[in-house]
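CORE FACILITY INTAKE
Project code: CF-77B
Contact: R.S. (postdoc)
Sample description: multi-component assembly, two entities in total
Requested service: structural model of the whole complex
Turnaround: standard
Below are the sequence entries exactly as provided by the requester. Do not edit them.
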Amino acid sequence: MARVRGWVRVLALLGVLAIVLYPLIWVLGSSLKSPTEVTSNLSIWPEEVTWSNYSDGWSYIPGVNFGRFFGNSILISLATVVANAASCLVTAYAFARLRFWGRKGYFALMIATLLLPGHVLIVPQYVLFSEFGWIDTPLPLILPKLLATEAFFIFLMVQFMRGIPRELDDAAKIDGCDPYRTFWHVILPLSRPALITTAIFSFIWTWNDFFTQLVYLPSVPSYTVPVALRLFIDSSGQTSIGPMLAMSVLSLLPVFLFFLGFQRFLVQGINTSGLKG
Amino acid sequence: MALTTASRPALPVPASAPPPARGRRKNYAARRSEGLAGYVFLSPWLIGLMAITAFPMLLSLYLSFTNYDVLSSWEFVEWVGFDNYEKIFTLDPTFWQSVRVTLTFGLIAIPLKLAASLGVALLLNRERRGVGLFRSMFYLPSLLGGSVALALVWVAMFNREGAFNAGLSLFGIEGNNWINDPDWALATLMVLTVWQFGAPMVIFLAGLKQVPTELYEAAQVDGASKRRQFFHITLPMLSPVIFFNLLLETINGFQGFTSAFVISNGTGGPLGATKLYTLHIYDKAFTDFQMGYASALAWIFLGAIGLITIIFFSTGKFWVHYSDGEN
């Protein structure tokens, strides 16, 4: 009886796995089908592998090819990773380790901003950044991150730092370290796992982000990959389905590779902070 | 602090403590420099809080009482009192449509997603082999699902010639153009949301691991059935995690934008069927450039989210069980 139940459970899990993976395998297979096969061949894998969707999709948008969009996306994502990691780390150190006036109140405020919907801030921030003349540049997407605006990562790092034994700080203090040197020589090296988790999530979230990039990058040459992908929908002719799926696959690839390389950090990251993917 | 040193006699701190008077002065100086360092380390965040969060919020509140559009100069900004709010509630059918769509979406998709994630977590919790692999694979859609690419995949899968209809035709069922059908477009969005059950599932799984096995052993000795064990041990012990996931998924769910925007090509169509509230804000702000009006919409949104959070926390004490006795 217990064995039967065990098999049923495994079958159920495999069924869920099939549902989960089907769209991903389907998009990969379809991106390799010829235009006629995309609609006529029901199997997920193409009869004949064709790469033309990739070359067609790459230069689908007249004047600018996807190399440019990938370049823009990579620039913004990498800059965001660095800015987030640095600014959230110093903020987390203050919250986790230092005693100063008003700490509890600030911490509560920081948690409150976690729940603040981005759509509430987008209009006034847009007004502000357009006064600065920053629209159509990557600045509104990168510079705010230097000011530790991603409360999620602060929270994640605070949680992590609370797990670092205080005795290490005390030992450093006895050896004559002030808070700055303690940060540099004790906390920073020990926070590597939290920094890696932050870097991975920052990258993936920025890479996938559509809303802010759509708002701040109105002209085609400054488009990022997600904003450019949307153009495939405008001319929803059947012929563009293949190229559209091919470019979708390319855009998912970096996230997928991060996932393969850093699964452990990703799952740990959600466990320590309840982070969303 | 006194307690920790007392419980750890190995630390030589009390024995080698300097004479009290000098110590206090030194201590005071150290405190002050630590307080200063605290503000130094906090300063980027503090500046950010003022410049990127607090000031824009006040600006947004002010704008919501004006007719501001970003195109004309500040001199033409007029204070219009509660006009925007009044218009929203009385003269804006799209507002009500978007509220309807958002609530329908939230009330169906979020419970389904949580049920799916809890169900799969329970299945996986029983399993011994391959748990890590299953867990990673199930988590994958949470990383990819919110992207534009996946929304495009959904369009391709659920349109008339898509894979979904091809699958249905195997069973002799005639498909539909799901994405373009006002009755079904929102449902395809819900499927996309539920498909991303992996993130809450990972949290549930971690919560299940925390339930002490002694409880189940004791229940078994007392002759409790599996079903009773589930309702009287698993669910109560898991209730803090359920609460956490519910809160998080609700707040995130109401902020969904990308999938609906891409699937409907920015219109929230067909016939407003996928017009989530966030799409309405976007439309007013960045298509019509009615920034004042959009700010009013945003503040109503903030109020609603705040209200939901308060409701969650105030009802939570009736069903969330904390095993350490604190509530």
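Facility notes:
- Chain B has a mean pLDDT of 86.
- The two ends of chain B are 26 Å apart (CA to CA).
Invoice: internal transfer
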